[in-house]
């Protein structure tokens, strides 16, 4: 928490007990922060550029990720790829430092760690300082270095190289993020933009490089991750400046709108590639005429209120389902043309069945577990429930009976087969469901709906088109 962070920082900085540190992410405050109404079109232009660059970033990274999922699967290949990216990054950095020779005299720049590489005595290499500082320090330098500290060629080339290296790095099998590298990429772009403005209109933009570096960082990050309010708050807190709140929000909103015209945000893309059944805030449009009978999975593996231990063991070993409807006796159904089960009596989870088997909660052994069956048995095992292969049952016990009524949920959420998709979607969102049982008019189980069944229905925003698609779920990348 914030208190612990402040204590650690106070000790690290030699002021033990001073709890006034703002946090680890601090890009320095802007002095004389001002902007005029006629700059708003420039903010809109930067936001549009950030949206375009972010959409291209997401497209390239999506293709790279799909390639990795198909071909870079072995551990040694993943390590080799990470080593290759590190080698290319180091080579690109040293080549830029050697070829550009962007040298400045000491004392004219607030860079904390000046590097002399390939410069004369009394000089430091500007591009070397950007490459060899931590990314946070480099972002701060681009925000606050005085005008004339960076050549236009240096900023432009650094932006292009770092943009593609950042895109290549995200998704490697290493501990790496996208937030700070993308801020640094955008800061270089914004500083380049501010330098161009100062070159053509020096009377207006001679001292505005840092402001446009901040807005460029916001535009780039907004175009990649498509976050607005949260990013505005983060950047305001990291710079300690409320004045630029409105320009940051304008840039982020435009970047999101332009980027959404082409594809989704980077996090949304990777969530879908990972197969996580994450539902959106609202049900997909054009889905009011899609009903439960079209979405549900069937036939459903079901259990009776009293089931043989051997039968439960075989069901758990042969399936991967996490929830099983508990029913009475089987009947016929006219919804799917398949044989359905009896009336719904409840729902029992795989974890609950495993705990019952582990602790021998059998009807024939009632005298052994009488009074011991309580919620503590399940809480103690959570979240690492035993696997069914770890449960041993003797041949004699396989003939015993499990009375599921003692453990099952007797009132599970259910819907009729004619329930529309938006209504089921709201049920999952509102009460955090994992399983939704579908019944016919006679309360007989005919199917089951899970988050994956609903997550298959997605809305695609591409090229200004709104289209609902249905994903084909497989176990591997095709």
Polypeptide structure, described:
- With 478 residues, the protein is mainly alpha-helical.
- It contains 19 helices and 14 strands.
- The strands form 6 sheets. It has a 3-stranded mixed beta sheet with strand order 3-5-8. A 3-stranded mixed beta sheet has the order 10-11-12.
- The longest helix is centred in the N-terminal third of the chain and has 32 residues, at 40-71.
Largest sheet: number of strands, sense, barrel closure: 3 strands, mixed
Number of helices: 19
| Biggest sheet, spatial arrangement of strands | 3-5-8
Quaternary state reads single chain
**Count of distinct strands:** 14
CA gyration radius, whole angstroms: 30 Å
Percentage of residues in strands: 5-15%
* pLDDT averaged residue by residue: 86
Helix- and strand-based class?
mainly alpha
User: Helical content, roughly?
Assistant: 40-55%
Poorly predicted runs are 331-335
What is the CA-CA span between the terminal residues?
A: 43 Å
Which term fits the overall shape? elongated
């Amino acid at each position: 928490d914030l208190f612990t962070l402040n204590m650690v920082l106070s000790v690290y900085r030699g002021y033990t007990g001073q709890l006034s540190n703002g946090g680890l992410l601090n890009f320095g405050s802007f002095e004389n922060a001002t902007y005029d109404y006629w700059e708003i079109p420039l903010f809109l232009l930067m936001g549009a550029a950030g949206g375009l660059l972010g959409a291209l970033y997401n497209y390239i990274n999506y293709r790279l990720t799909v390639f990795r999922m198909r071909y870079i699967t072995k551990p040694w290949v993943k390590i080799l790829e990470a080593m290759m990216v590190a080698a290319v990054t180091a080579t690109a950095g040293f080549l830029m430092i050697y070829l550009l020779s962007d040298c400045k005299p000491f004392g004219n720049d607030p860079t904390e760690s000046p590097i002399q590489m390939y410069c004369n005595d009394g000089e430091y290499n500007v591009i070397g300082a950007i490459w060899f500082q931590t990314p946070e320090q480099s972002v701060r330098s681009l925000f606050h270095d005085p005008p004339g500290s960076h050549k236009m060629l240096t900023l432009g080339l650094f932006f292009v190289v770092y943009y593609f290296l950042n895109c290549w790095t995200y998704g490697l099998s290493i501990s790496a993020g996208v937030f700070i590298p993308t801020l640094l990429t955008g800061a270089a772009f914004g500083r380049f933009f501010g330098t161009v403005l100062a070159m053509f209109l020096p009377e207006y933009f001679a001292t505005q490089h840092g402001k446009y570096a901040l807005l460029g960082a916001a535009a780039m990050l907004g175009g990649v991750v498509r976050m607005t309010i949260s990013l505005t708050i983060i950047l305001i807190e990291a710079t300690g400046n409320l004045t630029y709140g409105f320009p940051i929000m304008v840039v982020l909103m435009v970047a999101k709108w332009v980027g959404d015209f082409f594809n989704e945000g980077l996090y949304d893309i990777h969530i879908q590639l990972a197969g996580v059944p994450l539902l959106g805030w609202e049900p997909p449009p054009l889905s009011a005429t899609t009903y439960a009978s079209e979405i549900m999975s069937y036939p459903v593996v079901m259990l009776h209120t009293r089931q043989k231990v051997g039968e439960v063991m075989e069901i758990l070993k042969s399936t991967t389902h996490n929830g099983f409807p508990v029913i009475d006796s089987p009947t016929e159904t006219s919804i799917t043309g398949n044989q359905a089960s009896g009336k719904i009596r409840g729902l029992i989870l795989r974890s609950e069945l495993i705990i019952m088997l582990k602790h021998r909660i059998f009807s024939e052994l009632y005298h052994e577990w009488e009074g011991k069956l309580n919620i503590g048995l399940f809480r103690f095992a959570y979240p690492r429930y035993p696997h069914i292969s770890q449960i041993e049952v003797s041949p004699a016990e396989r003939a015993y009976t499990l009375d599921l009524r003692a453990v099952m949920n007797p009132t599970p959420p259910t819907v009729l087969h004619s329930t529309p998709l938006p209504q089921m979607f709201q049920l999952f969102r509102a009460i955090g469901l994992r399983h939704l049982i579908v019944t016919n008019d006679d309360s007989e189980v005919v199917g089951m709906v899970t988050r994956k069944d609903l997550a298959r229905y997605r809305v695609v925003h591409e090229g200004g088109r709104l289209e609902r698609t249905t994903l084909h779920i497989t176990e591997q990348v095709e």
